[in-house]
Amino acid sequence: MKTSLTIAGSDSSGGAGIQADLKTFSALGTYGMSVITAVTAQNTRGVLSVQDISPNIIEDQLDAIFTDIKVDSVKIGMLSTVETIKVVAKKLKEYNAPYIVLDPVMISKSGYDLLHPEAVEALKEELLPLASVVTPNVPEACKLTGAEIKTIEEMEDAARLLIKEGPSAILMKGGHLEEEPTDVLFNGEMFTHFYGKRIQTKNTHGTGCTLSAAISAGLARGLALEDAVKQAKEYITGAIKNSLNIGSGHGPTHHFYDLYEKAGVYKEERV
Ligand SMILES: Nc1ncnc2c1ncn2[C@@H]1O[C@H](COP(=O)(O)OP(=O)(O)OP(=O)(O)O)[C@@H](O)[C@H]1O
Ligand SMILES: Cc1ncc(CO)c(N)n1
To answer: Which terms under GO biological process does the entry name (predicted)?
Structure first.
């Protein structure tokens, strides 16, 4: 069985972060492992508080995994501090980690800073060059590039700027634009657009986490990047369509094997 590692924050309500990633890995047929970078007290309404995990413990978690188990793909989510970013970058380089999907998580849907604003530069310098693909939403892409983005053409312009920072590819998510949610993939040479229809629901907690974890699982299973993104987009669309009306705020997306079987991917392969 292929393995996927998530390096991210814990969400007590189970909809985003580590919990969303592990559910996604299971549904998409990889064995999930986790390095927890922060513990958030969070629910569907928002984030109450955050405790960052000390860099030593983050380093030990990474050593524990990489010295014992073969890692087939990595997904990076919430990192919160400069120290966390530095230790994660150091260890991923040391172990020559494969297929790194970097979700540059900055602000929660409810407006809480999950990455300290002064750590954006460290994220750019230390982690963008290691990423196989980086998956910013539009506000994150604006912070990373300084660009203003209101249209799909401006998403493409920003992707051209961002690729200069060193990632192998960019998947810019269009969920925050007014129009239908189109995601734009740029591999440095060509653009591919992934079109979606907006699903009318308030239950979108954890969509970004789920998408990046699904891409990481696909890469671990040997899919080419475009196919991994296509499968991930199918998966997140199903997970939003079937999202759960749990809690009084933004409910979570739903994860189950059916979504994956309906997408017609890997069915015969799973043993
Ligand atoms: N209402 C919706 N209907 C259909 N697809 C959506 C909807 N909202 C988001 N998406 C899709 O879900 C994926 C995640 O995008 P989104 O822009 O929500 O990420 P995000 O802002 O990083 O999420 P998060 O708030 O969890 O960090 C993208 O593929 C996007 O196009
Ligand atoms: C722990 C965690 N990671 C990422 C997000 C982004 O949605 C969140 N709300 N919580």
So the answer is: thiamine biosynthetic process
pLDDT above 80: residue 267: no
Ligand 1 closest atom vs CA 183: 31
pLDDT exceeds 80 at position 264: no
Give the residue whose CA is nearest to atom 23 of ligand 1.
Answer: 208
The number of the ligand 2 atom at minimal distance from the alpha carbon of 205 is 7
Q: Respond yes or no on whether ipTM tops 0.85.
A: yes
The pTM (predicted TM-score) of the whole model is: 0.95
CA 55/CA 70 separation, integer angstroms? 22
**CATH of segment(s) 3-262:** 3.40.1190.20
Q: 137 is written with which tokens?
A: 């939403």
Q: Is 204 in the pocket of ligand 1 (CB under 6 A)?
A: yes
Can you tell me the distance from the alpha carbon of 132 to that of 92, in angstroms, rounded to the nearest whole number? 12
Q: 22: helix, coil or strand?
A: helix
Q: What is the mean pLDDT of the chain?
A: 93
Residue by residue, DSSP assigns 28-72 as TT-EEEEEEEEEEEE-SS-EEEEEEPPHHHHHHHHHHHHTTS---
The helix or strand, by DSSP H or E, that contains position 74, with its residue range, turns out to be strand 73-76
Which ligand sits nearest to residue 12's alpha carbon?
2
- In the 8-state DSSP scheme, what is residue 270? -
